[in-house]
Design goal:
Largest sheet: 6 strands, mixed
CATH topology: Rossmann fold
Helix content: 25-40%
CATH superfamily: TolB, N-terminal domain
CATH architecture: 3-Layer(aba) Sandwich
Number of helices: 4
Radius of gyration: 15 Å
CATH class: Alpha Beta
Structural class: alpha/beta
Number of strands: 6
Shape: globular
């Protein structure tokens, strides 16, 4: 996926570059649904603070269009919530016997039509829920780095 992700025109002035929405995770197996929900909730909780504010998982779920392609759904999520930043993530079984999982996430800056970061974490399937803390820490570093570098101001 290239750096420019969104093809749809939108009114960017309504998006808050300091507000993040964590989209419901795409999961590759039914038994990972609860882990995906827990990861999204953890990331939302950990990101909400000094660097950015976050919308609740319930708000993100209501605003999410599960029938749209991910890029389009991210734009719709941003438009419906006012969030200039969207986290899209996938959790998939990995390896022989699928005893591990792979979490891939993208931090999208919908306000500027860019992918700020692409992150990947692997872990044991039975501890998939704990990947939320790791993902939140990595995203927080990206957000702090971007804010310190002059990016991430209000649009």
């Amino acid at each position: 996926m290239g750096a420019v992700l969104f093809v749809r025109a939108m009114n960017r002035t309504r998006l808050d570059a300091r507000l993040v929405a964590v989209a419901p995770l795409a999961v590759g197996a039914p038994d990972l649904e609860s882990a995906g929900s827990a990861i999204a909730a953890t990331v939302t909780e950990r990101l909400h603070g000094a660097t950015v504010r976050s919308i609740t998982p319930a708000q993100a779920l209501r605003a999410w269009d599960s029938h749209a392609a991910p890029a389009e759904a991210a734009v719709l999520l941003a438009q419906r919530t006012g969030a200039g930043l969207v986290v899209l993530a996938q959790l998939w079984p990995q390896g022989a016997g699928a005893d591990s999982v792979r979490l891939v996430a993208r931090l999208l800056d919908v306000s500027n039509n860019t992918v700020r970061a692409r992150l990947e974490i692997r872990g044991q399937r039975q501890q998939a829920t704990s990947l939320g803390d790791s993902l939140a820490a990595l995203l927080q570093r990206e957000l702090v780095k971007d804010t310190a570098g002059g990016r991430g101001g209000a649009q």
